[in-house]
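INTERNAL AUDIT FORM
Audit reference: QA-55
Scope: verify that the stored structure record matches its stored sequence.
Auditor: D.O.
Record contents follow.
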Amino acid sequence: MSQELDDFGFGTQIRKSPFFDATIRWGAQGFSVYNHMYIPRDFGDPEQNFWNLLNDAILCDVAVERQVQIKGPDASKFVQMMSPRDLSNMQVGQCKYVILTNQFGGVLNDPVLLRVKEDCYWFSLADSDVLFWALGLASNGDYDVEITEPDVSPLQLQGPKSRDIMIKLFGDEIKDLKYYWFKNLKLGDINLLVSRTGWSSELGYEIFLLNTEEGDEVYETIMQVGKDIGLHAGHTSTIRRIEGGMLSYHSDMNIDTNLLELGMDRLVDLDNDFDFIGKNALQKIAKEGVKNMQVGLVIHDDPMPRPNTKYWNIYNNKSMVGKVTSAVYSPRLKKNIALAMVDINSSVIGTKLTVEKDNKVIDAEVVEKPFYDPKKSITKS
């Protein structure tokens, strides 16, 4: 272990994932914190990690995507109350991307929801404390549900060679797994849940470990089986997720953002007869019209050496109209690309804007997003 890792200051208040030691062995050099857990963020050159994802496959420790389990006779009713997306036709074995909203219509989290059994769901979380939110809602309502954090920790196997690796791990059965569906499978004697999901905008899978004690064995087995096919240990790629227009909670949205500003109208059903937290607020916002809109930007500057770590102000002429929320240089597109929240009047495709970055004023332009593969043909392949 490097001196930098020795000095990182791992503490008991923040948890290590079941794959922590394995990621160190396979080259993890730096960590950050997400959902009160350490996540490996550095396996060397982030551009090489990007190309590994595009050309081969990467295995990412995303155990930080903690699960909140809603179980019991009223589980379906309770889960529907938490999200504005119509879940009435969701089947066992299916996954859905959902937004969780508060009473003001603000975004609390954007998890993937899995229907594990008829009376059991998992929210696979972004970075916020949904367990506490759900427990609070249950304590103030008449719902027959049990709310827990189960012993579940996901890995992501992503990239064009991920299917070949999965076939070696699980056999030809994996070929039939549809996009946004999951199966219960075994790796040797180890029980797993495997879904056709992932945070990469590439073909990929998530492998949900169901027993913390088996984490090291599962990670090591996958790496050993996949290394001759082209598998690399890696981390989620900021470059690829921005190319794909994938949002990051706390960066591109938060409790003060509503999903209509994010252009996520497909994830809210305001006309249906089911109720959910924030419905009245979102109906009012829809009636009055949004004041801001998330857009894609191209920033006309020298290649950024790294992603932005703070919001940059955006101007239309001399009026500040918004902020850059995520930005990165794409070596494939050979452009600085960004997601931004701007005034609705500055959100039209082709609008010329300027970005204030490090005391420089830089030209930018509103463009279509996602920046690459807008129909997700790669992900769904």
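Auditor finding: record pair retrieved intact. Residues 184 and 190 are 11 Å apart (CA to CA).
Action required: none
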